[in-house]
Amino acid sequence: MIPQPGWPSLPMNEGRAKGWLIAAVIWCIILALLGAAYKFWVHPHLAKKLKEATGSASHYRNEIVLAADSFSGYCVLRSEAFKQQLRERGIKVSVTDDKADYTARLEALRAGRVQLAAFTIDSLIVAGAKAGDFPASIVLVIDETQGGDALVAYEKALGSVQDLNDPAARIVLTPNSPSEFLARVVLAHFSLPRLQENWMVSADGAGEVYRQFRAGNSAEKKAYVLWEPYVSRALQQPGARVLLDSGKLKGYIVDVLVAQREFLRDKPELVRGVVEAYARAAYRYASEPDGMAKLVAEDARQTGAESLDAAQVKRIVEGIQWKNTLENYAHFGVVSGVEQGGLPTMEDMIANIMDVLLKTKAIANDPLGGKHTSLFYDRVLSELRAARFHPGQGLNVLSGVGAAANVETVRQQQELPPLQPEEWNKLRPVGELRVAPISFARASASLNLDSERELQDLARRLKTFPRFYVRVIGHARAEGDPDANRALAASRAEAAEGYLITQGVSARRLRTETAPTAISGGEAQAVSFAVGQQAY
Predict the structure, then answer these.
(1) DSSP secondary structure, 58-117, as one string
(2) Residue 390's pLDDT band (cuts 50, 70, 90)
(3) Which contacts of 266-274 are long-range, i.e. CB under 8 A and separated by 24 or more positions?
(4) Above 60 in pLDDT, residue 201?
(5) pLDDT for the residue 136
(6) Which of 88, 89, 65 is nearest to 77 (CA)?
(7) Across residues 273-294, what is the average pLDDT?
(8) Cα–Cα distance between 401 and 327 in angstroms, integer?
(9) How confident is the model at residue 518 (pLDDT cuts 50, 70, 90)?
């Protein structure tokens, strides 16, 4: 129909305007999408291509993130020699410092943000128990503390560990650290039934513990767990003494390298490359004159830690035993017999550490369900030994562990020397061991099966305290003939001592005694064990 003059034209103009508006909106949307595509895809792609065309190819084929903290024992992981060894393998490593936040460290492993991390074995177990998961497996022992941590007190208040058996006693320490675990080792192994459940006083680092030690009342029943250089500083105070240090322990405060499980499964060759690189770097520094001391001093400067003088560096190095390749072979059980060198296996160390955590209620139950071998992976070290690897040789020509004695050895503690009676009397007391009653039938010195099992466990524990002498004290009833009672007490002590010797405890560490006073009732039908040490 042709519009006639005078008809209204507004509807047609209105429709046309709407169509133009819709078209304009559509074109705006199209232009916006094109702009966004250019900004977020085309331009970055072109920029990347430009950088590639005008840049160079990376020398690294793989990148690894390793989580740790500023502990001096990890200095090799941050060293130039370690990085250089990895560069030669086309591996770039970035070491991140999470300020010893073990929970965050484990979560970073679980999420895949880091591939490797350093832990103490106890911190790994506790963090895994909290998370309900163990996303990483131990592949290397880095070091073991050998005197770098110590329980210090004023002698006026606490003359020995046993003096902590008091409701008023407290232990000042840095929580979630090797210091806390050292305190828990004490609580797990010594008989301190009167120590209260609120025994722990938390402090923010060894510096703060040391400040509290200096400001404290020397008559107050407080022990302080410190690490070097603060241990040495504390001992300069009049009346200060070491109650127990980590050098008296074996297989408890141990640092390990772990690998994320998926990374270990998918790229085992990279994990092996890292382990090899670490072994070579550690060997290099250990072989150079004052190599570890120079590295520790330089590492302290780079991490921003407190400036250390030469004496402090020396004490730190003396308090840490960096584990070499042969010792790792021994710890991971890839050698046996003489080659094992008396070192505890990883499986045994985990079991002993788990026992301490359970006894002191740091964890409610064993998060590994007794399957302690699930926490470490021995194949990397097994393959290295099979390939005759040795960090001190440029080629893999090592024919056997024993052949490397001139290069690396499994370091062993010297056996305690036998003591004369007067030397036994001069031992500094440490404390009474926490042992279930070693019971005997009335008027008998024969061990029953329960007592034998308890002595087996005690023998196992004594192997983790290799620097202590043990007084085996026999007890008998107060009633009856005093001479007969003393003879019975002596026989009981000798029976317990003899059984410990059959379980591998050196006879030179043991001495039998009879209790100076008798106790009435069944409580007297036992043997107790008190340990002593030679003066520091």
Answers:
(1) -S-SEEEEEEE-S-GGGGGGGSHHHHHHHHHTTEEEEEEE-TT-HHHHHHHHHHTS-SEE
(2) confident
(3) 267/62, 268/379, 268/380, 270/62, 270/64, 270/91, 271/116, 271/139, 271/380, 272/380, 272/383, 272/384, 273/86, 273/89, 273/91, 274/64, 274/86, 274/91, 274/93, 274/116
(4) yes
(5) 98
(6) 65
(7) 96
(8) 10
(9) low
